[in-house]
Every structure is written in structure tokens, then in C-alpha cells.
Amino acid sequence: MSGELPVTDALVIDYLREHADFFERHEELLGELRLPHASGAAVSLVERQLAILRERNSVMRRRMTELMHTARNNDELFRKTRALTLELLNVASWHGLNEVIATSVLTDFGADFVCCHLSAVPAELDHLRGHAGPLPHERLLRGNLAACLTLRADELESLFPGNSVEREGSAVVAPLSLTRGRGCLAIGSRDAAGFAPDMDTLFVTYIAEVISRVVQRLAD
């Protein structure tokens, strides 16, 4: 009849949303409706729904696997960070601090480089360097937050003196919170993707805070 509205996709969608039990009341339609498949064959609506559910379940399983992997990594990082913190509590000299930083970070955390830079501190050790002027991280960071950086070979050699670097790598750099002077903890990798910019810096920031307390105690 001329007064009837034309049936459109939108009207059908609205109707089905308002009558969610439609296919329960007309189960025979589920077997009759055919939908094109990526392979070219037609499948029923039920088969398509089952395929979608299987795909969603597969995605959820992958996400759960990723979450469990992340949780295990965080547990391992927490264990190593706790062990390092306990070692730092017993440090009584600059040489002792240098040894703990080297042993824990290079061995336990598997880094290629590590160095703690400090202003106005009389230290010239393998992994603990005092500076009378600007610190090497100050031209790399903006602000006082830890950051993961991809660095050129010369920038890595500046952060980690005494090491020969032939190509770009990466590092996480965390400023120290000191009441006197300035400082930073730098941990580096020869792999440019070793410390990706989107990596979490929570554990490194915590380690830097503990080292800050130790530095202030030794400097007093």
C-alpha cells in the first residue's frame, strides 16, 4: 500500500534490537539464513555465530597468555629489585655502591652497561662517576622523569664511559632525587630495541630513589 514505509536495513536492525527473542521464536530461520564466508562458501547464521565465538575465545586466550607472561615478568623484576634494595641498604662506601650497582644490574638484570653519574662527588670508578660540570644525561632528558631512549653510539659512550660502542643502542635513564647536587642512574643495552620508548620505568624509578638515599647518606 502507498502508505506503508519501505523496509530498510535500519528498520530491520531496530526491530531486531527491540525484539531480541525474535530468532528464539523463529528458530527455523537460523537454519535457512545463509551468509557468505571468506572461503566463498555459504554458511548458516548459527555456523557464523559459532565461528565468531571461536575467534573471540581465541583472542581472549591470547590476551590471558600475554597477561600471565607480564605478571611473571613483573614478579621476577620485583624479586630482583628487592634483592638489590637489600644490598644497597648495606653499602658503606662509594666503592661498595659501585660494586653493588655493577653486580646487580649487569648480572641480575642482564644489562650491557650501567653507570651512576653524580655532581660534585669525588668518585671515578667503573660504574660511578663524579662530575664538576654538566652531567651527560641532562642533554638527553626533558624534565625529571625516567625515560627509555634510543641513542647513537657517541651518546652511549658518554653515558657509559670506558665502553666502546660501534652502533646505536638504547638506555633507560632515571634522574636521582638529591637534596644536594644532581645525578642519574643509566642502564644501557647494545640492542636499539632493548629499552623501547613505551617500556614501563616503574622499577628503574624505584631503584633510582633507593640509590638517591644511599648517595645522600654517603655524601654527608
Describe this structure in words.
This protein is 47% helix and 16% strand. The chain has 220 residues and is of the alpha+beta class. It has a domain of 129 residues: GAF domain (Beta-Lactamase, 2-Layer Sandwich), CATH 3.30.450. The chain is elongated, with a radius of gyration of 30 Å. 23% of the residues are buried. The mean pLDDT is 83.
Describe the structure concisely for a colleague.
The protein has 220 residues and is of the alpha+beta class. Helix content is 47%, strand content 16%.
Low-confidence stretches: none
Mean pLDDT: 83
Task: Please tell me the CATH architecture of one domain by its name.
Answer: 2-Layer Sandwich
How many beta-strand elements? 7
In CATH's first tier, which class of one domain applies?
Answer: Alpha Beta
* CATH superfamily caption of one domain: GAF domain
Order of SSEs, N→C?
Answer: HHHEEHHEEEHEEH
* Percentage of β-strand residues: 15-25%
Structural class: alpha+beta
| N→C terminal distance | 95 Å
Shape: elongated
CATH fold category name of one domain: Beta-Lactamase
Number of helices: 7
Main beta-sheet annotation: 5 strands, mixed
Rg, please? 30 Å
Helix proportion range: 40-55%
Strand order of the largest sheet: 4-3-7-6-5
